[in-house]
Amino acid sequence: MSFTYIALLLGTGFIAGIINTLAGGGSNLTLPALMVMGMPADIANATNRVGVLLQSITGIIGFRKAKKIDTSDIVPVLIPTLIGGVVGSIIASFAPSELLKPLLLSAMIGMTIIMLIKPSIISPPPGTIPHKINEKPSAWVALFIAGVYGGFVQAGVGFILIGALAGTLRYDLVRTNALKMVCTLAFTTLAISVFIWNDQILWVPGLTLSVGTVLGSHLAVKFALKADPKTLKWFLFVMTLCGSAAALLSD
After folding, report:
1. Neighbours of 197 (CB within 10 A)
2. What sign does the CA torsion over 21, 51, 53, 49 have?
3. For residues 153 and 96, is the Cβ–Cβ distance under 8 A?
4. Does the N terminus or the C terminus of the chain have fewer Cβ atoms within 10 A?
5. Euclidean distance between CA atoms 16 and 240, whole angstroms
6. Backbone angles phi, psi at 37, to 5 degrees
7. How far is CA 178 from the centre of its chain?
8. What is the pTM of this model?
9. C-beta separation of 50 from 213 below 8 A
10. How far is Cα 55 from Cα 45, in angstroms, rounded to an integer?
11. pLDDT in tens, 3-38
């Protein structure tokens, strides 16, 4: 790789690591960066998961040290997410990613409108007691859909996970982002297994990208733990707008 490509992957990876940890949609930056290098869409989609995997591990470690991950909820939350991830990753190996663009765009625009009109749905008031997943069947469905999408194409899945975890289970945004990283790690691991089996990952660009995503995620966790909840809410709102625009304008 040339110095220009290395700088491109490190820079976009760093920004994407921050965005993915605090909101979602960072792959809208990294996927085009990989494709600029001449990768076909399916190879770029697979290679992008290396950075997502390592950034998720970094985020989980940071949130866990701060005791922001509710470990008792991990398994119940992961079950529908993993089932969806298996379905999505299998689809991804045989179908074009454009199939889910209308679904993603609708979900992101819907979230933007909800956050503007009634932000408490996505950002519960302080002191709200989260629900258990067995109390909310709608959460199981939402997490399954998020898993399918994440296993399929990754870009923008953070928004769907936030909608499921904060919107249905009523977690605050810090704990939502922490559990979101756990879910992302789970179905990204499954997806990478499928992509390795199909020999679709280019490891040198993927690992180069991951250096940036890991650094970005590390910084984002520190920011999330110190930031005011309103700041996190507005960051999520702006990123949702940007993600909606990116999905609308992408080919």
Report:
1. 9
2. positive
3. no
4. C
5. 14
6. -75, 0
7. 11
8. 0.81
9. no
10. 16
11. 999 999 999 999 999 988 988 778 878 888 998 888
